[in-house]
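Supplementary Methods S3. Complex input for the PRP-bound model.
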Amino acid sequence: MSLTIAVPKGRLFEQTLDLFEKAGLITEKIDTNTRKLIISGNDYNFLMVRAKDVPVYVNQAVADIGIAGDDVLLEIDFDLYKPVDLGIGYCNIVVAGKPESRDLYFSNPSTLKIATKYPKIAHKFFSEKGIKIQIFELYGSVELAPLVEMADFIVDIVETGRTLKENGLVVIDNIRPSTAKLIVNRVSYKTKRKEILNLIEKLENYLEALYD
Ligand code: PRP
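Predicted complex, serialized as structure tokens:
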């Protein structure tokens, strides 16, 4: 029985294929230079989705498995099994803003305006600090919000730091690192147990050897 895997389009898909190849899960060459949304291999069908949509497809059991970062998983309430930290898709979840806003941040403000794609992460982080926030939930290009003075700061992921740098923004505070996890639908875990256990075992064996 083949497994259906929801993966974010782009870099994380390429990292996933690389990991699957190294772990001996796929041997055939899969063409990533395509606009196709369903990419079929011998043992796996990949569904190409937006990162935030991965848990939705897994929760609906349309995909047996998904690849999702902590940034995405901390925003959802679904009960998904997360057996493996894949160690790919590494980034940091941070508070960022204009360099001149640093004083405001460290002056014990009572309220801050925060633009983000991650409202739950932002709420939790600032409520633990006792700071009230007004959230502007955006879907992308979050770095624009402080530049046009819509928000004091952003809560966002930083991978290479290039987007912040090119927009004159800096990291003001670190929230947490994020890596990609394997997520599994709990029904699929029972009905396709053999295939899923084989996948988990091969990934774990490869990752253990890597970190030894
Ligand atoms: C993400 C994130 C930052 C950028 C960080 O956005 O929200 O904007 O990547 O990466 P960097 O540190 O390597 O520059 P994404 O590329 O997903 O685009 P979006 O703004 O459309 O969400």
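Residues 12 and 123 are 27 Å apart (CA to CA). Residues 140-143, 156-163 surround PRP (CB under 6 Å).
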